[in-house]
Design a protein that fits this description.
A hairpin with a 5-residue loop joins strand 2 (114-115) and strand 3. Helix 10 packs across helix 17 (493-527). Strands 2-3-1-4 form a four-stranded antiparallel sheet, sandwiched between helices. The protein has helices at residues 8-38, 40-43, 57-67, 88-104, 135-148, 162-174, 177-196, 203-227, 233-262, 268-295, 303-334, 356-366, 368-383, 404-415, 433-441, 472-484, 493-527, 531-554, 568-596, 601-628, 636-668; strands at residues 74-81, 114-115, 121-128, 156-160, 424-429, 446-455, 458-465, 489-491. By secondary structure, it is of the alpha+beta class. It contains 21 helices and eight strands. The radius of gyration is 30 Å and the shape is elongated.
């Protein structure tokens, strides 16, 4: 016996202890990160400045307003309305209630009523710096004003305005965490039960995904504290979806390979080691590619998109870490019995069943060019639906279930069609405040302008446009103010929406090429080919276009969505490209294995589809279902994102991966691996290589 070398029994005991050590590590890790994960909600922000472009005019206005005396102002509009016309008693009630609001709270000015021309509505603008930047204080202020301003006897009273809209949005986002998590867990659980056909196995990856989500919350909290990354309700919700969706995908691939290896190895730990060697590299490579694609969002100027990138990447990487460490440990400790009633026995071989994917692959293999062309034509035809996409999303259309602030906005829009009902805010250097005020009053489209607070060298002006909010006329007025008032910043709700739209278009032009380039470079390194990566990237871009086209045909006619979120094209592109390439790596990795084992390119493509098609289909269904959960949320932006990504994942899973990538691989033959070693000469002339003996 050589000195210093562990005895076989000792090595065996050490190997048996590894799963227990991993489980103990995770128990300790959860105890450490628990307080940080629980604090994520405390740093979540859904103010306008958290979504606005970093360098936009409206963002500067919001930031400077925070430094003025009293800090950020909360602007409300009390709306009194009676269909048949307001009575004298109604006007008296309105006066008493607004006086009570002024008495109970510190307002920047005394509320004054503005009657509508038809006599049905009376609005009172109310502004206060009392809550400042504190979201809870703002919510309490809005609730107290709503409690004071109440209608009766046919008189309706609604509290709207930018402050009420922000409060309602924060309340909606705050209420999403529980329902989003529970619905996601329920959907994943149902699908896993159907896929595994086991009363126990489904619970293991689900628990691991839940712990991965907990870990990701703690990591994101740390990133916020260390690097001031913006955390919004949208980004944290998408992170949860990704953790469960991507994590379950990785679990499906690992468990499928583990089940296969259990027939070849007597000990579960040996089978798991073989499974990790077999599918681990593909899973790690695919998750790394997804994370790299998501991190390209850091180049975006939109705060919400830039924060989404690292947060989503954290979710994917935490899911990978959990599924490659804790899941294998738990499966080994539970042994074969976790698969009951379909327990894989040592020495058994999987039953050869008639595979749907084998039949689909055979059809693609017989006429690959015809299948490829027809599939491309279909995706192109679907993409034409983009021209039916509804216009940009307006504030009143941002909720699927309208809160009070939105109904107040609609009441004002109907009662005051001839004027604006929300101010345009101008921030100007105090030394030029009088000149700026005079210039604003003479600007085309401006109905009135008043001087507000001053502090820190800046003065606030409140400008009222002649045209209704978010109309073409008001947008022209904002553009005119920005061109006339040099050295000043023009903001407010409508200006913010304009900046969101412009910056989203700019980010799309910058980030899309960056994502394509980064993903392409990673794929070239992973697959040691140029043609195969180009094939995958072209396929996922086609899926993105077709998904948006389907959305254009569905959003307004079927779902009743009257606007499109400006950030939808960019976010859907990043997620669909990253996640679509994810599945492509699984398929081509197995195809490359077969080619390295000496198989002809056609046989390799069909074998890869037959062996991975079922797992990829299951993974695609799970991921589509998890993003589909977003369509049940009350925010239009989340509904649209969930729909487009879910449709795109299904297209990618059942059309592009199954037919188009397979048929293209068959048509190209060994050239799909050009200029790598596999693409230089046909498989028949190439000797078998032991490169993958450790992964088979």
């Amino acid at each position: 016996m050589s000195v210093g070398r562990p005895q076989p029994e000792r090595r065996s005991r050490l190997r048996q202890a590894v799963p227990w050590v991993i489980v103990a590590f995770w128990v300790a890790l959860m105890a450490v990160v628990g307080p940080f994960a629980g604090s994520l909600g405390d740093v979540q922000r859904d103010r306008a400045v958290d979504y606005l472009p970093a360098g936009a005019d409206s963002t500067q206005v919001a930031k400077i307003q925070d430094t003025l005396p009293g800090g950020e102002s909360t602007d409300l509009v009390l709306v009194y309305h009676r269909d048949g016309g307001l009575t004298a008693a109604d006007r008296a009630t309105a006066g008493e209630q607004t006086a009570a609001v002024a008495r109970d709270h510190t307002l920047t000015a005394t509320p004054w009523g503005i009657p509508s021309e038809d006599g049905t509505t009376l609005m009172f603008p109310v502004s206060s710096t009392e809550p400042g930047q504190d979201e809870e204080a703002r919510a309490a202020f809005v609730d107290e004003v709503r409690g004071t301003a109440e209608g009766s006897g046919g008189l309706s009273v609604e509290v709207g305005g930018p402050g009420a809209l922000i409060t309602d949005a924060q309340e909606v986002y705050g209420s999403l965490d529980g329902p989003l998590l529970y619905t996601t867990v329920a959907v994943v659980a149902i699908l896993l039960v159907l896929i595994y056909r086991s009363p126990f196995l489904w619970l293991v990856p689900l628990v691991v995904a839940g712990l991965a989500d907990f870990l990701s919350m703690a990591v994101v909290y740390g990133l916020n504290q260390g690097f001031d990354i913006t955390v919004s309700g949208q980004s944290s919700g998408v992170m949860t979806i990704l953790v469960f969706g991507a994590g379950t995908d990785y679990a499906l691939l690992l468990v499928a390979r583990y089940r296969e290896e259990l027939g070849r190895w007597a000990q579960p730990r040996d089978a798991m080691a073989a499974a990790l060697r077999g599918c681990g590299p593909a899973v790690v490579a695919s998750s790394g590619t997804v994370a790299a694609g998501l991190l390209c969002l850091l180049a975006a100027d939109l705060n919400s998109s830039r924060g989404m990138g690292p947060i989503a990447a954290v979710g994917v990487l935490c899911a990978l870490f959990a599924m490659m460490t804790l899941l294998p440990a738990l499966l080994v400790l539970l042994g074969r019995r976790v698969f009951w009633p379909l327990v894989p026995a040592y020495g058994s071989t999987p039953k050869q069943r008639r595979s749907l994917f084998a039949a689909m692959g055979s059809s693609a293999g017989r006429r690959p060019v015809a299948v490829l062309v027809s599939g491309g034509v279909l995706l192109g035809a679907l993409a034409l639906g983009v021209f039916s996409m509804p216009g940009d999303l307006k504030q009143e259309d941002s909720f699927t279930t309208k809160p009070e602030s939105i109904t107040a906005m609609e009441t004002l829009s109907a009662a005051y069609p001839e004027r604006s009902t929300q101010p345009i805010t101008v921030i100007t250097p105090t030394g030029r405040a009088d000149d700026t005020l005079a210039a604003a009053r003479t600007t085309s489209g401006v109905a009135a302008a008043e001087r507000g607070r001053s502090g820190g060298g800046w003065t606030e002006l409140s400008v009222t446009a002649q045209d209704p909010p978010e109309s073409a006329g008001e947008q022209a007025t904002i553009e005119a103010l920005r061109s006339v008032l040099e050295g000043s910043h023009v903001g407010g709700p409508s200006a913010q929406q304009m900046d969101l739209e412009k910056t989203s278009a700019r980010d799309l032009k910058l980030v899309v090429p960056l994502v394509i380039l980064s993903v392409l470079l990673i794929l070239v390194v992973l697959l040691r080919s140029l043609v195969a990566p180009l094939l995958l990237v072209v396929a996922v871009v086609a899926v993105w276009g077709a998904s948006l086209g389907i959305a254009g045909l569905v959003f307004e006619p079927l779902l009743g969505l009257e606007g499109t979120d400006p950030g939808l094209p960019l976010l859907s592109f990043v997620f669909l490209v990253a996640l679509g390439v994810d599945y492509g790596i699984f398929l081509l990795h197995r195809m490359r294995e077969e080619c390295l084992s000496g198989a002809e390119p056609t046989a390799a493509a069909l074998t890869a589809l037959r062996t991975t098609g079922g797992v990829i289909a299951s993974a695609g269904l799970v991921l589509a279902a998890t993003f589909g959960v977003l369509t049940s949320m009350p925010m239009t932006a989340l509904v649209e994102m969930g729909f487009v990504i879910a449709v795109g994942v299904l297209l990618d899973t059942f059309l592009v991966r199954t037919y188009l990538v397979t048929s293209a691989s068959v048509a190209l033959g060994h050239r799909v691996w050009w200029p790598g070693a596999l693409g230089r000469k046909p498989a028949a002339d190439r000797p078998r290589t032991p490169e993958l003996t450790a992964t088979r």
